[in-house]
Amino acid sequence: MGVMEKFRLDGKVAWITGASYGLGMAYAEAYYEAGAKIVFNDINPEHYERALVEYAKRGIPVYGGVVDVTKEDQVQAFVKEVEENVGTIDILVNNAGIIKRIPMVDMTVDQWNQVINVDLTGPFICAKAVIPGMIKKGGGKIINACSMMSEVGRETVSAYASAKGGLKMLTKNICSEYGMYNIQCNGIGPGYIATPQTAPLRERQEDGSMHPFDRFIRSKTPAQRWGTTEDLMGLAVFLASEASDFINGQIVYIDGGILAYLGQDPSNLDESKFAEQKSSESDVVVKD
Ligand code: NAP
Ligand code: GCO
Hints:
By secondary structure, the protein is of the alpha/beta class. It is 40% helix and 13% strand. It has 8 helices and 7 strands. Strand 5, helix 5 and strand 6 form a beta-alpha-beta unit. Helix 1 crosses helix 7, helix 3 packs parallel to helix 4 and helix 4 runs parallel beside helix 5. The longest helix is centred in the middle third of the chain and has 29 residues. Bound molecules: NADP nicotinamide-adenine-dinucleotide phosphate (NAP) and D-gluconic acid. D-gluconic acid (GCO) binds next to loops.
């Protein structure tokens, strides 16, 4: 097999959770281009229906369902349905996630639990559901949506960082426990990417000036820009393909260099150089 063939996903069944827009839809598009059959879910029926229209517009056949990743009965039933109608799931991307930006002392236990349930328990539930099929089939790929917050913290994201830190260790543990079955479990660790999840951090101020956090992130990123969903597609395909068969338990950071860089004084940035980085068109269409 030629080396580029190793990056193909022909005939593989790829399930990307929470892929109605944002990073999940970008992963689905990349996997389709690489030859995979696409399966996705979303918790919100309206977003799910709008995503079906968007996938059709892009010419991407999908199999999907309205499934809450925190509900094991829904997940187990969905995986059984996919196995009957599409085939055994070869690739699982635990992409679905939420964030609540609340100072820790003001956060309720319910708010904390909501974030932990989606961002950490959800990936556990989904991986638990697909691993038996992967073992029967002789192997598989599990890719967890980790984050800069799997490594560092910041104000107001205590639950999210705790979940993403836990997801880093869940990634290493699935690697440890199921690597013997030719299952590779790795994490993709995006930096700051322009999607609906980060839109509040990029909105222009009333006077048209940059959001302070936008200026901060650009001062911490050597490329002085936010990532785009397209930036992540190549790594997502690599981690889902045979090209990464001997990589296991790793979190691969794709952050434009943030984790390597001390950063510069935000006031040094020439604001005139920067247009507001908006989420992609499909994000806006699906996530009203
Ligand atoms: P996003 O725009 O907020 O999209 C999240 C997706 O997950 C939405 O489709 C959402 O559906 C779905 N979802 C939420 N809760 C769910 C549940 N219980 N069951 C099923 N689906 C659910 O997020 P994103 O920016 O694309 O990020 C995707 C993943 O990458 C997340 O895990 C995020 O933490 C991680 N990440 C993002 C960045 C970034 O800068 N954007 C960086 C690092 C890591 P609804 O909208 O219908 O609720
Ligand atoms: C935040 C952001 C981040 C990004 C991402 C960074 O509020 O700090 O939402 O958490 O989503 O996780 O890698």
